[in-house]
């Protein structure tokens, strides 16, 4: 009787078996289907893996702090628009925002004769204990900065968000929100009275706007290789700057490929800003849209260093002898930063006989060490690294002067 | 034999209201040395308390008011009795005072001494509002769930709130832990013992916490129980884990359960104070963690807001929005579906 039951159930079990695969011992089984492609990973994931691999080696013990800052909400600064007047700015200041640039200047050149008594408390926006300030303020900085630029930031550790700017009665906005560290290249460029300035990769326009705030630019040429981005640049400038200052004799907006500038206009500009397309580390980690780590853009990403060197070289050619060129990126990657500068300097000498001098930005880092974290021991240029309490950057900058 | 003595003593005590503060510790002692199986002695005591409650009710009809005298009779010191009387009289509702005596006696039957009972009621005055019948049922339920004598008393005295929770709630929590989270009965008992507050937790929150630890952190049930996961709040847990994850010090295991680095144990994450966690485990500065907590709290608030507005529109691309918030996208998908972890059931 038990046997009969067994046969019945086994018949039932066998009838349920679809194929013999489950009955074949594992060692004889053949894998029926093989994956033809890698599992789909979003570009942000790819970017993170790439950065983990490269930056842990390049940045060492700094990487974990930078990593967590990159993956968390970034901190903005409000670039003040001198051409607009409304109460927004006073409101911001009432909520604790301070202009980090004035702070930095006050810190470097304190008005009090006694350099040992440090700063006046109301001007110090951070609570970080400042130990090495004595060294910075003992001599006037040999580095000049572009004047009149003002950018408000909330204090260190304060994560308050900025409200969007509102237009004044003329329809101009009172401030432009951007990564406060992006202002540093504009400051370092040192635009002085009646300079002609070329911004080779100007879109979306934050830096161009900052340059116009100096009110020292005789003529600004803003270029971007993409037409859509150039139209955005136009919109930005028109939202902030009165039409009278955007006339053809003061401003020219173009959509050329920046690498050909050496052929268009050589030895023409007092100052050239080369803010190249790069990995855009922060964006690549947080947004899947328009992400350079997506599969379709692998070729584009791999050829970035070459493009960057070409752009920098073009900028060097466009500058006049004695003029300054400022190279900046928003990536931590050394092979898009120092390596590119070295390459371009070498090419300039070999192919065009141009001698360049690297201008140290050390005074800049000293001046703003209360606001930003700078990477230590960079042998060429300076770099703002993200940190949770000062979540700006990454920004790399390097200043070159044409000697010949 | 000893138990019979106990029964007689208890009966005598309740019937005559003879103050015998010394008999209670004796009762406790004989309890421990009783040779009868626990269940039998429990049942005996239950029947005793049923008898006492009926006796008490009879007496109550004669004296419906709680009095200082009756409290003193139960064995409280004057100070304790006064305190109790005050707090009970202050409690709203006339019904509160009526069955307080029976509640108190039920607690004594459990084996707690007056000082403990007093502390207990101090901690949790709403316990007085619990009817004696309910109390007995809840105690019985706890015993059935695996609380042995000793641990039951310990848990009740440390966390008296557990007796204010209706049986249904405890049952649903236990059912959830056993059936959905696949904890063994023994593990469930351990969880209840270590973290009795789990019975008061919202089931949704509990589920989220479990899924978070199981899938995002790749930690299995045994470790969860061993390291007392349920003692910790979800927010604390998520904050610490996310901090480690974003620093690159914690990796969600892939489908095979492997990681390219060794994750810190749950022990190292939860069972250390914040200072040690920040300095040793995360190797960061307190300032960083402080700012991180603020940022994360805001992220969660934004997420909740998004969830709320997305549900009302029921868009299909809401998954994309959710994925962008964390960098471990694949694992996120698994935790979003409610049935996700049922697939992991092993035979």
From TrEMBL, chain B:
<dbReference type="InterPro" id="IPR003690">
    <property type="entry name" value="MTERF"/>
</dbReference>
<dbReference type="GO" id="GO:0005739">
    <property type="term" value="C:mitochondrion"/>
</dbReference>
<protein>
    <recommendedName>
        <fullName>Mitochondrial transcription termination factor 4</fullName>
    </recommendedName>
</protein>
<dbReference type="Pfam" id="PF02536">
    <property type="entry name" value="mTERF"/>
</dbReference>
<dbReference type="GO" id="GO:0006390">
    <property type="term" value="P:mitochondrial transcription"/>
</dbReference>
<feature type="region of interest" description="Disordered">
    <location>
        <begin position="303"/>
        <end position="347"/>
    </location>
</feature>
<keyword id="KW-0809">Transit peptide</keyword>
<comment type="similarity">
    <text>Belongs to the mTERF family.</text>
</comment>
<dbReference type="GO" id="GO:0061668">
    <property type="term" value="P:mitochondrial ribosome assembly"/>
</dbReference>
<dbReference type="GO" id="GO:0003676">
    <property type="term" value="F:nucleic acid binding"/>
</dbReference>
<feature type="compositionally biased region" description="Acidic residues">
    <location>
        <begin position="313"/>
        <end position="334"/>
    </location>
</feature>
<dbReference type="InterPro" id="IPR038538">
    <property type="entry name" value="MTERF_sf"/>
</dbReference>
């Amino acid at each position: 009787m038990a046997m009969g039951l067994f046969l019945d159930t086994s018949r039932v079990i066998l009838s349920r078996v679809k194929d013999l695969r489950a009955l074949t011992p594992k060692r004889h089984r053949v894998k029926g289907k093989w994956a033809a492609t890698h599992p789909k990973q979003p570009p942000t994931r790819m970017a993170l893996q790439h950065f983990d691999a490269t930056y842990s080696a390049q940045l060492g013990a700094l990487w974990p702090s930078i990593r967590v800052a990159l993956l968390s909400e970034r901190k903005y600064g409000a670039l003040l628009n001198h051409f607009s007047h409304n109460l927004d700015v006073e409101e911001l200041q009432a909520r604790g925002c301070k202009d980090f640039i004035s702070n930095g200047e006050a810190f470097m050149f304190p008005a009090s004769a006694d350099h040992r008594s440090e700063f006046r408390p109301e001007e110090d926006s951070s609570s970080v204990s400042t130990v090495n300030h004595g060294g910075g303020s003992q001599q006037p900085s040999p580095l000049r900065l572009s004047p009149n630029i003002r950018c408000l930031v909330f204090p260190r550790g304060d994560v308050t968000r900025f409200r969007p700017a509102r237009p004044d009665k003329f329809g101009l906005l009172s401030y432009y929100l951007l990564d406060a560290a992006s202002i540093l290249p504009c400051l370092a460029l040192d635009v002085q009275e009646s300079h002609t300035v070329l911004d080779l990769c100007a879109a979306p326009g934050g830096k161009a706007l900052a340059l116009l705030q100096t009110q020292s630019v005789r003529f600004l040429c803003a270029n971007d290789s993409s037409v859509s981005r150039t139209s955005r640049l136009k919109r930005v400038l028109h939202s902030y700057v009165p039409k009278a200052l955007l006339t053809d004799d003061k401003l020219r907006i173009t959509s050329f490929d920046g690498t050909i500038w050496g052929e268009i206009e050589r030895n023409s500009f007092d100052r050239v800003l080369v803010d190249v397309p790069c990995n855009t580390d922060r964006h690549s980690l947080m947004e899947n849209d328009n992400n350079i780590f997506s599969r379709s853009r692998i070729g584009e990403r791999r050829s970035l260093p070459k493009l960057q060197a070409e752009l920098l070289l073009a900028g060097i050619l466009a500058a006049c002898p004695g003029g300054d060129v400022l190279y900046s990126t928003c990536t931590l990657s050394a092979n898009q930063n120092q390596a590119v500068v070295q390459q371009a300097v070498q090419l300039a000498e070999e192919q065009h006989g141009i001698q360049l001098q690297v201008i140290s930005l050390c005074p800049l880092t000293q001046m703003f060490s209360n606001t930003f974290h700078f990477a230590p021991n960079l042998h060429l240029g300076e770099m703002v690294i993200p940190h949770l309490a000062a979540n700006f950057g990454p920004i790399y900058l390097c200043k070159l002067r044409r000697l010949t | 034999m000893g138990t019979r003595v106990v029964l007689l003593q208890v009966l005598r005590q309740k019937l005559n209201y003879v103050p015998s503060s010394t008999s209670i510790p004796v009762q406790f002692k004989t309890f421990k040395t009783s040779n009868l199986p626990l269940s039998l002695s429990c049942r005996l005591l239950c029947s005793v308390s049923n008898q006492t409650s009926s006796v008490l009710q009879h007496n109550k009809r004669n004296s419906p008011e709680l009095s200082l005298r009756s409290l003193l009779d139960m064995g409280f010191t004057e100070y304790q009795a006064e305190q109790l009387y005050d707090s009970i009289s202050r409690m709203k509702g006339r019904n509160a005072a009526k069955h307080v005596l029976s509640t108190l006696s039920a607690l004594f039957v459990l084996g707690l001494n007056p000082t403990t009972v007093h502390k207990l009621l101090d901690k949790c005055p709403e316990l007085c509002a619990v009817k004696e019948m309910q109390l007995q049922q809840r105690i019985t339920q706890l015993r059935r769930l695996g609380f042995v004598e000793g641990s039951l008393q310990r848990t009740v005295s440390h966390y008296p709130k557990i007796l204010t929770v209706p049986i249904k709630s405890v049952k649903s929590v236990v059912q959830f832990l056993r059936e959905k989270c696949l904890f063994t009965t023994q593990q469930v008992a351990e969880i209840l013992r270590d973290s009795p507050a789990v019975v008061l937790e919202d089931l949704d929150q509990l589920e989220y916490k479990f899924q978070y630890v199981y899938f995002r952190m790749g930690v299995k049930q045994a470790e969860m129980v061993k390291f007392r996961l349920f003692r910790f709040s979800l927010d604390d847990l998520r904050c610490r884990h996310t901090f480690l994850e974003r620093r690159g010090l914690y990796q969600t295991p892939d489908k095979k359960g492997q990681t390219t680095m060794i994750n810190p144990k749950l022990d190292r994450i939860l069972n250390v104070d914040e200072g040690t966690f920040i300095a040793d485990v995360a190797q960061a500065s307190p300032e960083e963690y402080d700012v991180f907590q603020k940022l994360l709290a805001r992220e969660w608030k934004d997420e909740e807001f998004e969830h709320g507005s997305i549900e009302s529109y029921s868009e299909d691309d809401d998954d994309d929005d959710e994925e962008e918030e964390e960098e471990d996208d694949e694992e996120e998908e698994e935790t979003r579906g409610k049935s996700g972890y049922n697939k992991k059931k092993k035979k």
